[in-house]
Amino acid sequence: MSEALLAVQGALRCPHCAASIKIDAGVAKCEAGHSFDIARQGYVNFLTSQTFIKNADTAAMVEARQKMHARPFFQNLAHQIAQVCDGLCRGMPSPVIVEPGGGTGFYARAATQVVSSAVAVSFDISVHAAKVCARQSNRIAAVVADVWQPWPIGENSADIVLSVFSPRNIEETKRVVRAGGTLIVVAPEVNHLVELRTKFNALGIERDKSEKIAKSLKNFTNIHQSVHESSELLNGSAQCDSLLSGPNGHHISAEDMELLRTAESINVTHCVNISVWQLS
């Protein structure tokens, strides 16, 4: 929705020259004259020629993630994240949430539903994800951009950076977060989906991931830490969605997906670490 892009245009910056962006007549244009058409679905594509998009989520991966997000664990996780955002945003007249690697904008939507005065920029390298994100809310701007390139976000523009199962570009996070602003990190624990990963020899999760994240955040102070865990009985179709929706989705063939969908139901562990970090 161009309305959503208008709501956050003060935070947007040109990916070529970092100049301010204005939204007008279906175009995002910077002061230096670089322009970007707003797609009819409502998102804007800020990818540059230097961007590497081989690992962008496919349409099938995005569809699988939408189905996965409808399950109780992820609905509850979104609710927990939204409650954390609500506590952080109290007293702020119009908080800005930036969600790098936000996919479909699912968690940004949960946050803005609870924090009614907030606006958000959710960006992802996948055009397929951006098309879904653009339908989430008129307060969530959908942007196609690369987490590992300079973000199309101005310095000191974000009250909250929301990183859920996404790559963490710490230098860009520090640049865009306002003084006293916060970073919310949601990362899988080593036993997250362990039954699926063992059964299908899927990609693993590095041990001590949370400790490594903490060590990388030298300019941040940890103000909250919790673990969200539950077990869920998943049929073959749900197992397939769980694997297809993440990095494993790039390695699953169509034949393997059909086999997965007919697999017997098993209990699967979901376990993630939620940490909140304030910029010092």
Strand share of the residues? 25-35%
Low-confidence stretches: none
Distance between the termini: 35 Å
CA radius of gyration is 18 Å
Largest sheet: 8 strands, mixed
Taking all residues together, what is the mean pLDDT?
A: 92
Number of helices: 10
User: Which structural class do you get from the secondary structure elements?
Assistant: alpha/beta
Number of strands: 11
Order of helices and strands: HEEEEHHEHEHEEHEHHEHHE
3D shape: globular
Lateral arrangement of strands in the main beta sheet: 4-7-6-5-8-9-11-10
What helical percentage do the residues reach?
25-40%
Written account of the structure:
The chain is of the alpha/beta class. Helices cover 32% and strands 28% of the residues. The chain has 10 helices and 11 strands. The strands form 2 sheets. Strands 4-7-6-5-8-9-11-10 form an 8-stranded mixed sheet, with helices on both faces. Strands 1-2-3 form a 3-stranded antiparallel sheet, covered by helices on one side. Strand 5 (96-100), helix 4 and strand 6 form a beta-alpha-beta unit. The mean pLDDT is 92.
